[in-house]
Amino acid sequence: MARKSTILSCLIALTASQAFAIGETITISTEDVQLVYKVDDQNKLRQCYFGASLHDDAANVQMTKNDAFPSFGTSYVNEPALRAVHADGNTSTELAYVSHTTAEEADGVQHTEITLRDTYFPFDVVLCFNAYQKENVIEAWTVISHNEKKPVMLYNYASSHLFFSEPTYYLTQFYGEWADEMKMEEMQLTRGKKVLESKLGVRSNQHAHACFLLGLDAPAQEDAGRVLGGTLAWPGSWNLTFDVDNLENLHVICGINSFAGQYSLAKGEKFETPRMLYSYSEEGTGTITRNFHRWAKKYGIWRGDRTRTTLLNNWEATYFNFNEEVLSGIIKDASDMGFELFLLDDGWFGTKHPRNSDNAGLGDWQVNKAKLPHGLGFLVEEAAKNGIKFGIWLEPEMVNPASELYEKHPDWVITQPNRPLDLSRNQLILDLSNPKVQDFVYSVVDNTMTENPGIAYIKWDCNRFVTNSGSFYLPAEKQSHLWIEYVRGLLSVFERVRAKYPDVCIMLCSGGGGRIDYASLRYFDEFWISDNTDAYNRIFIQWGATYFFPSMALASHVSVVPNHITGRTVPLKFRFDVAMSAKLGMDLQPKDMSPEEKEFSKNAIQEYYGIREIVQHGDLYRLLSPYESVRTAMMYVSEDKKDAVVFTYLLDKVINGGNNQVLYLKGLDPEKRYRLNELNKAPNTYSWFTPLEGKSYTGAYLMEYGLRFPMYNQYESKIIRLTEE
Ligand code: GLA
């Protein structure tokens, strides 16, 4: 009887709202893009349009049958965005429209919430959107909650579902491995599913990045064509599914990877999924890049309006093998060369288990007095005396079994009971689902900072992914929550660190680029994209990364040759010319440089300061892709279009006549005249750019006729500065 009356009241409620809502149009709009939903006569929310803005005509799009958020059991698609088992064991969910709100926020962000409710259960899914007007970025996520008598088990809980109906779809994925990140590969989608994912939990970008480009009806091009770009803001396991159904429609379902991660949702609890960021353009991937960069600088990274400092890092210079004298020497050399900060890497800590290699000491964040008898404070002072700042490496989420921390707290690590410890880089992950561990991780940062006043920079590392995913803290029935609780714990520590240390510059690092995402970057000034510092490889790695993440945050270091990872030898100029196209740094022992190399470096660093504002705050335009030609080129243009800087590199020798590919510049003001000057000139070599040196041309000429000069030799490079006359 009780059940009957519930059904009746649901029916009445639905009938009332149905009458009100049928045909209702809900539009998520930026300046150039619209996502349009409509409520049909069954009170279901349908996605009716996604593409270039239709302006006031959005309401005139036709009704479709495309479920806005397909849920298992009642939606006719292959892959659900949502799968829940309700308190009574019912495995299906049927979502109907209830209401929506849109609020215009002052700073150009339109926030929309669409509430959907199960037609029987008191179970809600709120589809949330932030539409960034000027940046043309749409952020999508969901909030799931219920009022059922017992917990509801969530098996699939996507952040977003988008629907496309096109003749063809071309997906570009970004994948890699340690020292080989952000490689790009495009493929045409065929019927069935293509799943990009990570199940690694932590360091979850080690094998692939939660980023994609989707060319609609044509492969993605740089300056033309309809393209969607997407990236998930979540430093845990993720899943981007592209499902071409029986009618050749494409469903894009993005969110946390829920594999082995079913979540028991308590009555009244709100489950918020991570933000999925989209940018759509009808003018190709270049616009998408600039949209993401502009968005990131305003909303996505910590202090995106501030210019980033140059630094010298001692990792490749010394590895674990240093003492006060060695470091003092490097600090002095860094300052003499013109760097602004010295970053002390791994190996400075551990007493009972000194960190002299990667097999001991992680977790014991007390200075190793054998190496640094006067502590970190001495080095901070040394840096200050030399007029530069000091930074420090931390890996606070991790522990070596050979550590006092592990001896004291063996139950703080992620592992399964009754299984041998599964070490990776000789280390284990601390269980951040445990609030005590969160406090500890926070205290590592806090103690280091308070005990050593003056530290201006932290490199936050994270060198392994999850295996044996057990938590001693979580109860047996919530072991599958670890993937989510870890990330929640991590983000809450980031939040606390930032609340207390807003002015410290923090670099996001994870064995290179194993953790690059916009949930983390909200708290970080910059990131380390790869341990591979070989400039040749970096051209490709940085090319991929900058589709989504801005160059101002991408640390790029000049290191020694032969490169420690690849063995390749390339000219110092080439190494600088690559590093200067992002955030310049250095990772070598200056003592090993010749006076000429030091002089060249000194000059290059000064040249970087001259273009730093353009590189870090300007708009990126890609000219020639390293995936398509032997010569590659890109450029930055300042917002007022008065300044620009072009980078071009030759990847292989071109024997007969050299490479004569024209650089058709982009993004300039056609009316303005720009003077051309080469930077970082290679000493004692003829420059084929010389005939153009000091000349000035209109933006129209440079964009239509282009820059024409040959390049001959492998690893030849040029930086050309454009200044408005
Ligand atoms: C990781 C980082 C490196 C370096 C080492 C130190 O591999 O990516 O840059 O900091 O750890 O152990």
How would you describe this protein?
The chain is of the alpha+beta class. It has 3 domains: 2-300, Distorted Sandwich (Beta-galactosidase, Chain A, domain 5); 311-395 and 429-463 and 481-619, Aldolase class I (TIM Barrel, Alpha-Beta Barrel); 621-724, Sandwich (Immunoglobulin-like). It is built from 13 helices and 36 strands. The strands form 7 sheets. Strands 5, 6, 7, 8, 11, 12, 14, 15, 19 and 20 form a 10-stranded antiparallel sheet that branches. The chain has an 8-stranded parallel barrel with strand order 21-22-23-26-27-28-29-30, surrounded by 6 helices. Strands 31-32-33-36-34-35 form a 6-stranded antiparallel sheet. A hairpin with a 4-residue loop joins strand 7 and strand 8. It is globular. The model is unreliable at 1-19 (pLDDT under 50).
CATH H-level superfamily title of the largest domain: alpha-galactosidase from lactobacil brevis
Name every ligand kind in the structure: alpha-D-galactopyranose
Total number of beta strands: 36
Distance between the termini: 84 Å
Q: Identify the overall geometry.
A: globular
β-sheet strand percentage: 25-35%
The CATH C-level name of the largest domain is Mainly Beta
Count of alpha and pi helical runs: 13
Mean pLDDT level: 96
Oligomerization status of the protein chains: single chain
Low-confidence regions: 1-19
Rg, nearest Å: 27 Å
List the domain count as a whole number. Answer: 3
Largest sheet at a glance?
10 strands, antiparallel
